[in-house]
Amino acid sequence: MLTSSGRDFVPSQLVPADVCITDIAHALSLICRFGGHTVEHYSVAQHSLLVARILSAMDASPAVQLAGLMHDAHEAYIGDIPTPIKDTLGLCWHELEFQAADAVQAAFGLSSVMQSNKAMIKHADLVALATERRDLTRFDTNRNLAWDILVGASPFQEPATTGSWSPQWWAGLFLDKFTSLSDTVAIQSVGMSTAA
Questions:
Q1: pLDDT tens over the chain, length 196 residues
Q2: 3-class DSSP state for residue 169?
Q3: Which of the two ends of the chain, N or C, has the fewest CB atoms closer than 10 A to its terminal CB?
Q4: By CB neighbour count within 10 A (0-12 exposed, 13-18 middle, 19+ buried), where does 110 fall?
């Protein structure tokens, strides 16, 4: 496959050298959540920013917020498949997703923070899902099937998104957030190593 910046990659053999943050921001801003079944265009980039916002409200460290922002970054390379379809695809999909996620996390040095904060990031992801269902779908408790995955997850107090801006705008916001959090994490890391 070919990325927006012109890099070649093999989806089942993604390596850290293939990974580029501008490719990720561009692709995620164009990939729709819920298979496109939302009341307005809503992208994985917007979802990722919401997860980072929820983690910030949970007083997570900047490193955890960065991991939350990047938790679906591998979807820039393999796409976003709605969970019920992922479950149907089974092991084949899960192996592909794990391989891509592993490469992206390694590329940005996020493997350790992602693993050690997995439960917190997953909770923020489910809060985001509950928020998106509330704000962006036509879900009706009297008509639609229950979403068992959301048991114990309440929607965020803030809206899922703040307007129908262009995908390019959301890509820019994603990049800005990535840079801001990365810089903060780098400064804190330097401070900790200097103090040691």
A1: 999 999 999 999 999 999 999 999 999 999 999 999 999 999 999 999 999 999 999 999 999 999 999 999 999 999 999 988 999 999 999 999 999 999 999 999 999 999 999 999 999 999 999 999 999 999 999 999 999 999 999 999 999 998 778 999 999 999 999 999 999 998 876 655 444 4
A2: helix
A3: C
A4: buried
| Three-class secondary structure assignment of 34-100 | HHHCCCCCCEHHHHHHHHHHHHHHCCCCHHHHHHHHCCCCCHHHHCCCCHHHHHHHCHHHHHHHHHH
Which residue do the tokens 């089942």 mark?
Answer: 12
Q: Which amino acid is at 144?
A: N
What is the token pair recorded at 85? 């379809």
Which contacts (CB < 8 Å, 24+ apart) does range 9-16 have?
9/77, 11/77, 11/78, 11/96, 11/100, 12/96, 12/99, 13/99, 14/74, 14/77, 14/99, 14/100, 14/103, 14/104, 15/103, 16/103, 16/104, 16/106, 16/107
What is the number of residues in the chain?
Answer: 196
